[in-house]
Design goal:
Number of helices: 12
Strand order of the largest sheet: 3-2-1-4-10-6-11-9-8
Largest sheet: 9 strands, mixed
Shape: globular
Distance between the termini: 47 Å
Oligomer: single chain
Number of strands: 12
Length: 346
């Protein structure tokens, strides 16, 4: 009897939300509440919170909203997501971070409807929408850039609009070389795509989705105005710290899998560095976009380019120093094994 009920429950799940957390008590509540507000059958949704041993009330908050908490202690966010994928029961996987909040009540229904109509699509990508309570820095980095970093925006491949359907669904073609970064905040994709990449390929969004693009899965779905609030940064200092951390994580990722979305030639990377370090080009671009979009947040473009460049450089230096320390630790351990061959014997 219990087995039959369990099978019926598994069959009813359509979407599995996957949320990695670490000490996210302050942000997680609004994120989960926005999921529960969706006009979608509650038994068709499961929430998986992969928690990396939080020391605050993150786990309690997750359980208050009926989430299933998974032990992801010691794992980085992307590895925690992969851990959740293995137990997810939904036909679709919806990726959110604790600092995301779904806007409106029909986001999930529209995303699932779009994916049902386009089974060939890589996934449904949310727009970053402007939250009236966010700082100007956060509004610029999320809603203006739609990528949270001007340097990454410069390097990213471009989408080509293939069709605009009557209900506002935008159907895009992704670049064949996998150079478009996607698969993060507010992204929904068919679980079956997990079977289209080698089983031994470590999961990183900057690796997994570009690999699928290079395999020919190059349709991306979006709906203007259908998206999330991303509570990304409070100001430039916060952004500076996050750029450092992003570069360190990128270095660790590249040690495992070098073929990421931004693995293109160094020419574009040097051009991006030159473009943002001089600030002349970004200043002109910021003014033009501010006038065209009637959005003064674009005026932060040159300053954000400076902060991003500085944070990226400091992060790369820290990553190199950390990599050198790991290399020296491995050499020391190997030397110890050679000098004391019996020390690690069973």
């Amino acid at each position: 009897m219990h087995d039959a009920l369990g099978r019926r429950h598994r069959m009813s799940v359509i979407v599995s939300f996957v949320i990695p957390t670490l000490n996210a008590e302050r942000l997680l509540g609004p994120c989960l509440a926005s999921i529960r507000r969706q006009a979608f059958a509650s038994n068709a949704v499961e929430i998986l919170v992969a928690d990396a041993a939080s020391q605050d009330r993150t786990v309690d908050v997750a359980r208050q909203y009926g989430a299933r908490v998974l032990d992801a202690g010691g794992l980085l966010a992307e590895a925690a997501k992969r851990h959740a994928f293995e137990v997810a029961e939904g036909r679709y996987l919806a990726l959110l971070d604790a600092d995301n909040e779904i806007v409106g009540v029909d986001w999930l229904a529209r995303a699932v409807s779009a994916l049902d109509r386009h089974p060939e699509a890589l996934g449904f990508e949310s727009y970053y929408l402007k939250c009236p309570h966010h700082s100007r820095w956060n509004r610029y980095l999320t809603s203006c850039l739609q990528i949270s970093d001007p340097y990454a925006r410069f390097l990213a491949g471009r989408l080509r609009l293939r069709a605009l359907e009557r209900d506002g669904l935008e159907v895009y073609e992704l670049p064949a070389d996998g150079s478009y970064p996607t698969g993060a905040n507010g992204f929904v994709f068919p679980k079956r795509w997990l079977n289209e990449v080698p089983a031994d390929l470590p999961y990183h969004e900057a690796v997994f989705f570009p690999e699928l693009m290079r395999k020919g899965i190059r349709t991306l779905l979006k709906i203007r105005g259908c998206g999330i609030w991303h509570h990304y940064v409070s100001g430039w200092r916060d952004f500076f710290r996050k750029r450092q951390r992003a570069m360190i994580i990128r270095s660790l990722r590249r040690e495992e899998v070098p073929n990421t979305w931004d693995a293109g030639g160094w020419v574009w990377k040097w051009l991006a560095l030159l473009y943002f370090s001089t600030a002349v080009g970004p200043a002109i671009e910021g003014v033009v976009r501010a006038m065209c979009a009637r959005d003064p947040d674009w005026l932060l473009h040159p300053l954000a380019g400076w902060v991003s460049t500085a944070g990226n450089i400091v992060g790369m230096i820290r990553a190199i120093l950390q990599a050198d320390r790991r290399r020296r630790e491995r050499l020391s351990q190997e030397l110890h094994r050679r000098i004391h061959p019996g020390a690690h014997a069973d």
